[in-house]
Each structure stands twice: as C-alpha cells, then as structure tokens.
C-alpha cells in the first residue's frame, strides 16, 4: 500500500485521514524530517495506486513469487513484483499525482533490464521525464533490489506521477520496485566493480560476513590471474562472523579485491583485512552448538563428503564447503585429516572455483602404479576426481604427492559434459581388468536418472562402458553414487557389489569390470532423517578390510558461524536375511577411544508402570542396551529424546520417526550416540540405522529406561560418557 504522506490529509477524510496522519508521524520518525516516503508497498493492496493488466496481482508481493528465484534487498515485508503469473504477464502500476518537493527521488529496483518495456518512470504532464530499469539482461543474474535515485531539482513544484511498466515477456520479463522516497540528500547509490588493493602480509585474509546480507560477487586476483570468485554476504557494519581465506601462497604480493556491487555507504570493503591468526581462535570448537562427536568445519557451510581416501597413514576427508557463507554456495573442497577417524584437523580448502565453475562432489584414489604419471620420486600420487559445475559441466583431476598441496591437471577436463546433469564421479581401481572405473551420475532426457560406467587405463582418458538406469520419476540412483564390493556374512569367497545413491537407496548385484547386473534393487539404506550423499573410503589397507562410510549429517546450527556436519564413521557389511543380502551399519571401533567413563546396570527386569530406571547422566554419550522385550514397548529417554522399541511390531521409533527393526532371536540390541546436534541410533545389529538431527537442552543430561505393556528383561545396559573429538 502506498502512502503519499504529507498530502494525504488534504486528499482523504475521516478514518483514512486519521490513518494517513498516523502513518505520517511513524514514517517521519523513521525517515527524518527532510525525507518524504512516497510508497513502501506494505499494505494488502496497491490502493491508491492503480494497476492494469495481470503482471502485478492484487497487491504487493511478500518476496519471491511461485517459480521465481529468491528476492532480496527490499525493505519491510512487501514490494512491487511483476512476476505474477511468470514472465509472460504484462501491465502497469500508476501512483496518484503528487507534488515534487525535494531535490531527489530515491528507490529500490531490480528485475530485468529492458528500458523500453521494463521501467520505473516519473511522468510530468503525461510525459516520461525520468526512467530506470533493472540490471539483468542475460540468463542467470540475481533478484536483488538495489538503490537508485533521480535528481529532480529542475522539476521542483511540478505535479508528477510514478509508473511501473511491464510490457516485456520472456526471460527476465519482470521488474521489482520498493521504498520510494523524496529527499534533499542524494540517497546512497551503488558503486560497481569497486577495487581495493591489499598486500598479503599475513597468512589469512578476513572477510566480514552478515547473515542475510545481499550477496556480492567478490573476486580476488594477483595481477591478471584470478585466484577465486565467490558470492559473499558482506557485512556493511559489524559482522556476524569472519570468513577466512588462506593467502599464504601469495605472501608479499598485492591482492586485488573487487566487489561487483556495493552501496556507497557500506564499510564492507574497508573492513577486509589481513590477519596472522584465526578470529575467535580461543573459542573455536567450543561454541554452544558445535558437535563434539561429529566433524564440522571451522566456519561456513558443509555438505557432501568427498574424496574419502587413506593416504600416507591418514584418513583424508574432503567435503563440499562454502567458506564465505552459512548456506550452500561457492562450492570449494574443504580438507581435513585424521589418524583415528574420530579426531580431525582441518587443513583448509584445496579446490577453489575456477574458469570451469564451482567444485562439485567427487572422489579420490591413490594411483599406486602411477598410471597417471602424476607421481614423482617414487611417491604414488593422490588424485582427486571432481565435477566442475560450470557451463558445460565437466569432470576434472587434481593431484598431490604429499597429501597437502594439490595441483589441478593442466589437461582438464578429462571427461566432457554428457548432459547438464552429469556429476559426482566415483573412481576406483578394478584389479581383475587392470583399469580404472568411473561411476558417474547422468540425467538423460526421457530416461531420467542413470549411472554411467566409464573405464580408463590412466585416469586421463575415459571410455563409456555401460549404463545402469534407475526408476523413472523416482530419486533412485539420483546423484552422488558410490560403488564397492562387500563379502556376504564376511565370507571372502561370496562377494557382491553395492551401487549406492545419495538418498542411500542401493542395489546389490555382480560386476565384471564393464557392466553392473543388479539382483536386488531399490533397497532402503539408512532409516532416519538428515543423512545424505554418503561416501566410503578407498585404499584402506587390505589387512584392515573394512568398508568405512561417512555421510553428510544435516545438523542446522542457527546463530553459529558454521552449519552442518558429518556423521560418525560407519562400518558397512552385507548380512544374509530371508529377503536376500542386506546392508548393515555399525559405528567404527575407533569411536570407543572417546569413552572416558562407563556406568553399567546389572541385569534386571523393567516392570510396566514403574518409575523409569535411571541409567545415568552425561552430555556426550554412547548408550548400549541388550534386552529381551517380550511383547512390550521398551523406551529409553536420552537427554529429552525418545528411543522406543515396539516388540509386537518389531519397530524402532526415534522421536516419533519409525522404521522396521527385526528381533534377533528374542533379543534386541540398540546403540545410541548423542551429541549437541544429533543422535545416531543403531538397532538389530545394524540392520536398522537411524541418524536424527536433534538439539538436546543443555540442562537435560539424564538417560533412563522404562517398559509398557509387559515386563522387559535388560540383559546389559551401559552408559559411556564420551570425550570431545576437539580436545586432547
């Protein structure tokens, strides 16, 4: 709703006059005595503005409309948005007449750039005297509104109207407008391609970040060489947190930091500064919502685990990382290492976006025979295989002989785009055929989700070998594939291959080095929530023989400078069941090293209706329970979470989320790990695995057990208080 304020009392009477006066007083306080608000579009309708056509709907939008990208940069809750019914709609929106009484008219504008057909216009005597259009003329772009203004000093005293025009169709055929004011001070505008030179005099370069701030394209370069280009929500004032770029490789050189669009009154560019130390180092890993059992990056967003490999005595965990934002974007490969799978040291980002696009998911291998030629001095190279998700989307390599510094292959890409939906290569050495195999997700027109199998003698040249199709219209075999061989019931003479998708649905079958032949398809994997895109380790020594998996644990941590985490290390096995071989998940034995104190209950019977039996108290914990449930429901209360087993239904429930969990004989065995950000629950010797994001109250440390419906015999219950993975 528009409020042409100082003149509203002369045009309206009665209740409308009172409303206008109240609004005048409110906005005068907000704007200052010299500024006059012409329109803020905060009402339910556009009145007294007049709309024609169908581009603007019945009233102001509250942000993005259906089918539209996220809209940002507007003030309050409403704005003019002509994307109503999409880019094919057209129309006009015209204000009542008003006198021009200030030297400038300022406003926020966004949308398409088409001055003849998309415009915010100022009309005097029916003639357009000022006009502005949005910034977007090509595919891509942003729905951010930016401040602009007109100098109208020569028009003082004249009567004018404002008009929003949408006569455009097709891509970017819409316009966004908000917060129109008259002022004697020129409103702050936008500076474009602003550059600041910073000498890399310290190890780090710090960028001020604010949650929800408009995204800016920040480019860091040395001379003519672009190091990285990212979208960053730069803080105009005091930041919520500092993003960190390691500029050690360019020590002593001048870094050119360019921002594509920045308000004139923003202090963000000046706030970027060198530093020898990490900000808030004293409280790092001790934040209130930092998982103490699960890896999470120091700062920024993480999602898929990548490049899981054992190399030079260390478990390497690469991961999708946005070092410059709390949400998804700017995909880098972060890097952390561990010698025991539970205690991690973050090493920084090893793959940054480049001319081929952001760094999407992939895998890593040790090229023991140096088929790639990347090894030197007798050292086998560690090779990363990843998707560069630009246009086109391609598969690329990077390599290292120390596990710390990585060089992108100068012959990239090694596999051109198949379709726009190809990504996430999983690569392994197939010993029987003496060649490399790549398992790649490809979305094909008319066929949907597929897995393409490629082979190579040297990691550089790839040949299509076969295609495995999923189920049309489902998420089966959708992105982030993993592919590995497992013995059934631990028998090395009876093995099967497992093809796993991001949602953990999987198929079991045979593989001859060229084609996968599924025998059991679309089997359910994990049964919980917040678990996605898991990957397993390659190159684990044969004497170990385990297939170890880590998944993306979707643990949101609002208010923190980091977001999301990884699961515990999981050992995968194939177990015979009446329905065929099925995958079981169990925590890796290395998690036992976190135990610092154990309280065990003696064997006892839980009687229905009795007061819950206290097992103990702990903040970080592992609960082990072996019991005979009979016909009862056995419930464990774990720091406010409810883990219940219904024996009659043979069903496990975690905070109301249910999944089948068969009895083993007459017994059930359950293990629960509880952290500050989530639960991981294992039942039926791993045939049922339920990860669950969950934030317990800090003051609720109790663990107890009870039964309902019938007695339950507890054979063994142990509560292990656990140590943090971040502290010695």
Overall description:
This protein has 728 residues and is mostly beta strands. The chain is 4% helix and 48% strand. It has three helices and 55 strands. Strands 43, 44, 46, 51, 52, 53 and 55 form a seven-stranded antiparallel sheet that branches. A hairpin with a 3-residue loop joins strand 30 (435-444) and strand 31. The chain is globular and about 90 Å long.
Total DSSP E strands: 55
Give the overall pLDDT as a whole number. 93
What percent strand? over 45%
- List low-pLDDT spans: 1-32
Structural class: mainly beta
Helix content range: under 10%
Continuous helix count? 3
Largest sheet: number of strands, sense, barrel closure: 7 strands, antiparallel
Question: What is the radius of gyration?
Answer: 30 Å
* Mass-distribution shape: globular
Q: Alpha-carbon distance between the termini? A: 60 Å
> Which oligomeric state applies?
single chain
Characteristic key phrases:
728 residues, mainly beta, seven-stranded antiparallel sheet, six-stranded antiparallel sheet
Quick structural gist:
The chain is mostly beta strands. 4% of the residues lie in helices and 48% in strands.
How is the secondary structure organized here?
Layout: H1 8-11, H2 14-31, E1 36-39, E2 50-53, E3 71-72, E4 80-81, E5 91-94, E6 98-99, E7 104-111, E8 118-124, E9 127-132, E10 143-144, E11 146-151, E12 159-166, E13 175-183, E14 190-199, E15 204-209, E16 216-222, E17 225-232, E18 241-246, E19 254-263, H3 268-271, E20 273-275, E21 300-311, E22 314-322, E23 332-338, E24 345-346, E25 359-366, E26 382-388, E27 394-400, E28 407-408, E29 423-430, E30 435-444, E31 448-456, E32 463-469, E33 482-488, E34 491-500, E35 506-511, E36 516-523, E37 531-536, E38 547-553, E39 562-563, E40 565-566, E41 570-577, E42 580-587, E43 595-601, E44 604-606, E45 613-617, E46 621-628, E47 633-638, E48 641-646, E49 651-654, E50 657-660, E51 668-674, E52 678-683, E53 688-693, E54 702-708, E55 712-722
Parallel strand pairs: 3-10, 21-39
Antiparallel strand pairs: 1-13, 2-5, 4-13, 5-12, 6-12, 7-11, 7-13, 8-9, 8-12, 14-19, 15-18, 15-20, 16-17, 16-19, 21-22, 22-23, 23-24, 25-26, 26-27, 27-28, 29-30, 30-31, 31-32, 33-34, 34-35, 35-36, 37-38, 38-40, 38-41, 41-42, 43-55, 44-55, 45-54, 46-51, 46-55, 47-48, 47-54, 48-49, 49-50, 51-52, ...
């Amino acid at each position: 709703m528009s409020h042409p304020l100082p003149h509203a009392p002369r045009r309206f009477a009665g209740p409308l006059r009172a409303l206008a006066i109240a609004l005048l007083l409110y906005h005068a306080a907000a704007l200052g005595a010299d500024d006059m608000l012409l329109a803020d579009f905060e009402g339910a309708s556009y009145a007294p503005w007049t709309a024609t056509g169908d581009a603007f709907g019945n009233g102001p939008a509250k942000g993005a409309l259906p089918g539209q990208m996220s809209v940002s940069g507007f003030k309050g809750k409403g704005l003019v948005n002509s994307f109503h019914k999409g880019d094919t709609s057209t129309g006009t929106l015209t204000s009542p007449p008003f006198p021009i009484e200030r030297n400038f008219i300022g406003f926020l504008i966004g949308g398409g750039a088409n001055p003849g057909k998309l415009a915010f216009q100022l009309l005097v005597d029916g003639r357009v005297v000022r006009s502005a259009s949005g910034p977007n003329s090509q595919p891509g772009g942003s729905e951010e509104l930016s401040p602009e203004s007109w100098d109208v000093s020569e028009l003082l005293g004249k009567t004018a109207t404002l008009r929003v025009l949408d006569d455009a169709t097709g891509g970017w055929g819409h316009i966004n407008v908000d917060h129109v004011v008259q002022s004697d001070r020129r409103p702050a505008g936008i500076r474009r391609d602003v550059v600041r030179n910073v000498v890399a005099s310290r190890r780090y370069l710090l960028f001020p970040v604010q949650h929800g701030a408009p995204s800016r394209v920040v480019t860091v370069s040395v001379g003519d060489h672009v190091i990285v280009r990212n979208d960053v929500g730069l803080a105009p004032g005091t930041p919520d947190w500092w993003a960190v770029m390691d500029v050690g490789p360019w020590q002593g050189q001048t870094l050119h930091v360019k921002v594509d669009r920045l308000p004139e009154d923003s202090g963000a560019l000046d706030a970027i500064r060198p530093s020898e130390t990490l900000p808030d180092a004293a409280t790092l890993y001790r934040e209130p919502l930092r998982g103490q059992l699960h890896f999470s990056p120091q700062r920024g967003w993480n999602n898929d685990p990548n490049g899981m490999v054992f190399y030079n005595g260390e478990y390497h965990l690469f991961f999708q990382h946005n070092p410059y934002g709390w949400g998804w974007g700017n995909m880098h490969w972060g890097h952390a290492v561990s010698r025991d799978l539970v205690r991690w040291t973050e090493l920084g980002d090893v793959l940054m976006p480049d001319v081929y696009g952001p760094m999407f998911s992939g895998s890593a291998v040790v090229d023991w025979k140096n088929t790639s030629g990347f090894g030197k001095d007798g050292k086998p190279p560690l090779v990363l295989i990843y998707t560069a998700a630009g246009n086109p989307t391609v598969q690329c390599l990077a390599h290292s002989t120390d596990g710390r510094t990585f060089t992108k292959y100068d012959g990239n890409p090694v596999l051109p785009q198949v379709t726009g939906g190809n990504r996430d290569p999983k690569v392994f050495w197939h010993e029987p055929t003496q060649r490399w195999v790549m398992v790649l997700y490809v979305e094909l027109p008319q066929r949907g989700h597929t897995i393409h199998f490629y082979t190579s003698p040297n990691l550089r040249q790839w040949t299509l070998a076969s295609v495995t199709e999923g189920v049309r219209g489902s998420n089966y075999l959708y992105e982030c594939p993993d592919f590995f061989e497992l013995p059934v019931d631990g028998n090395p003479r009876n093995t099967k291959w497992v093809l796993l998708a991001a949602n953990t649905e999987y198929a079991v079958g045979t593989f001859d080095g060229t084609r996968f032949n599924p025998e059991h398809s679309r089997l359910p994997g994990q049964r919980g929530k917040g678990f996605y895109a898991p990957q397993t380790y390659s190159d684990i020594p044969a004497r170990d023989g385990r297939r170890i998996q880590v998944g993306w644990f979707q643990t949101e941590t609002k208010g923190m400078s980091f977001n999301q985490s990884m699961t515990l290390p999981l050992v995968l096995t194939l177990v015979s069941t009446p329905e065929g071989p099925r995958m079981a998940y169990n925590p890796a034995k290395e998690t036992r090293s976190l135990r610092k104190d154990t309280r065990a209950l003696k064997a006892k019977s839980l009687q229905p209706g009795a007061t819950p039996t206290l097992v103990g108290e702990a903040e970080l914990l592992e609960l082990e329970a072996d019991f005979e449930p009979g016909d009862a429901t056995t419930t464990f209360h774990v720091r406010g979470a409810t883990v219940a087993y219904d024996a009659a239904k043979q069903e496990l429930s975690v905070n109301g989320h249910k999944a089948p969990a068969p009895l083993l004989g007459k017994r059930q065995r359950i293990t629960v790990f509880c952290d500050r950000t989530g639960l991981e629950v294992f039942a039926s010797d791993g045939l049922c695995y339920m990860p669950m994001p969950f934030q317990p109250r800090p003051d609720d440390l109790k663990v107890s057990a009870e039964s309902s419906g019938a007695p339950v015999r507890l054979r063994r219950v142990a509560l292990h208080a656990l140590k943090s993975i971040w502290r010695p």
